[in-house]
Amino acid sequence: MRQVYLDNNSTTAIDPRVADAIEPYLRRVYGNPSNLHSFGRECAEGMAEARDKVAAFIGADAEEIYFTGSGSESDNWAIKGAALARAGQGRHVVASPIEHSAALGSLKFLESSGFRVSYLPVDGYGLVDPADVARAITSETTLVTVMLANNEIGTIEPVKEIAAICRKAGVTCHTDAVAAAGKIPVDVRDLGVDLLTISGHKLHAPKGVGVLYIREGTRIDPLIHGGHQEKGMRAGTENTLGIVGMARACELLAVEWREDAERMRRLRDRLEKAILERVPELRVSGHPEKRLPNVCHVTAGYVEGEALILNLDMEGIAVASGSACSAGESGASATLVAIGIPPLFRNSPVRFSLGRETTEEDIDYTVEAFVRVTTRLRDISPIWKRR
Ligand SMILES: *Cc1c(COP(=O)(O)O)cnc(C)c1O
């Protein structure tokens, strides 16, 4: 049976060229980059090169790149670290309600520690209005966090406009760019943000490595205390394999992202058009234009969500319900509730997220299987017959 992986927003395959870059670190280059001897120095040089490559990918200086253990850690560090560092000035944070669970969990922690968090409204596409950010900021506000693109429905937020408002108000601005990186341009200077998160395993590097960009001069407390690694800001012997892999992945994307994105957009549009034409009672979520080129998120009425995902899996197709990390009201995704998807549709979301390896054959096979599965499930559904 054909196997089609359309869950690239959950994780991506390691690119063979990334694996090649890691290989020496797996076998020969095992020194501790903190050591002064030749073993350590060789590793430290590899790390320095990696920092340059990641910095180039997002338009930062190498000194502003901090390696972490995941995208989740970077989000935690950015949100808790910036709020705590400026707690003397105020204890108010502004956030979008459709952030990743790593951000939402960090915000909840701040609330339990005496901070106030204001959640912004979003429209039916999940878009934040920068004017609402300006309205939410008070003299107590020290941090705003709004993701660059939503991992579930793909909507791209107006982060540049939001960052400009923050800058004027003297408020630190963080964006989670994990889903966006490699799909749309991510340039920290152009965006004007102070803090930005990316994660290795979402861009064809290994799991367990993330980056936090910290703009020079940004006030932030460390999250992991201990050794002097990462300028004393993130203790722990560096994950050299992950870091070298992440750097190679960024280096490849810097050259290839546009071509990748165009191909994924063409295939995504082909998929979306075909299933909308052939499957009734199907709604697309996310903004029609301001959307990641690799994401097609649909909700199907009169079908049970879990049955849909499992039946597609039996056809060899891996997709997400997109709600694994964000269960909210009645198990439905917090994002889908926030954008007002009606209950009949909310409980059967399917997120197709394409990747570098996705082919036209994969898409055509997926269309046929999706039509087959939704038809089969509806044929046995009493509510479908009674609709
Ligand atoms: C996957 C993801 C994260 C978490 O990254 P990990 O490296 O898996 O911890 C954070 N934010 C977004 C938008 C993501 O898609």
Q: Work out the helicity level.
A: 40-55%
Q: Per DSSP, what share of the residues sits in E-state strands of 2 or more residues?
A: 5-15%
Q: Cα distance, first to last residue?
A: 35 Å
Class based on secondary structure composition and strand pairing = alpha/beta
Largest sheet descriptor: 7 strands, mixed
Structure report:
The protein is an alpha/beta fold and 387 residues long. Helices cover 44% and strands 13% of the residues. The chain has a seven-stranded mixed β-sheet with strand order 2-8-7-6-5-3-4, with helices on both faces. A three-stranded antiparallel β-sheet has the order 9-10-12. Strands 1-11 form a two-stranded parallel ribbon. It is globular, with a radius of gyration of 21 Å. Residues 325-329 have low confidence and may be disordered. It binds pyridoxal-5'-phosphate.
List keywords for this structure.
7-stranded mixed sheet; 387 residues; globular; 3-stranded antiparallel sheet; alpha/beta; 12 strands; binds pyridoxal-5'-phosphate
What is the topological layout?
Blueprint: E1 4-5, H1 16-27, H2 38-58, E2 65-68, H3 71-85, E3 92-95, H4 101-112, E4 116-119, H5 130-136, E5 141-145, H6 159-169, E6 172-176, H7 188-191, E7 195-199, E8 210-214, H8 229-232, H9 240-278, E9 282-285, E10 295-300, H10 305-314, E11 317-318, H11 334-338, H12 343-346, E12 349-353, H13 360-379, H14 382-386
Parallel strand pairs: 1-11, 3-4, 3-5, 5-6, 6-7
Antiparallel strand pairs: 2-8, 7-8, 9-10, 10-12
The protein binds pyridoxal-5'-phosphate (PLP).
